[in-house]
Design goal:
With about 110 residues, the protein is of the alpha+beta class. About 40% of the residues lie in helices and about 30% in strands. The two termini are about 20 Å apart. A 4-stranded antiparallel β-sheet has the order 2-3-1-4.
Length: about 110
Amino acid sequence: MAITINIYYKGKNGNALKFANEMINSGLVNQISNEKGNLKYEYFIPLNDQETILLIDKWESQEALDIHHKSPMMKEIVILRDKYDLKMEVEKFIEIDPFTKEDLKYIKI
């Protein structure tokens, strides 16, 4: 049962983008992506809000996510988040069923 967390990092004066760039350039994103159970860790910029960065963070289980939350990397993330004075809006999605045949009619792969 995969879990996807959408985190909207909101800042001012480009701070959300600076945060994401520092996460990438410091190697933290690469470390997190290589953690056991991580399926996706990727940043996006919403077209309607250039002061927000969306992180899509996907894990194979709640256990893998819990282990990540206890890792030293989380302390580094909190430090960077505070450095750039970011606020967060968070959504959590738990995958329960695969796509149905009806869903697949509308998905082009």
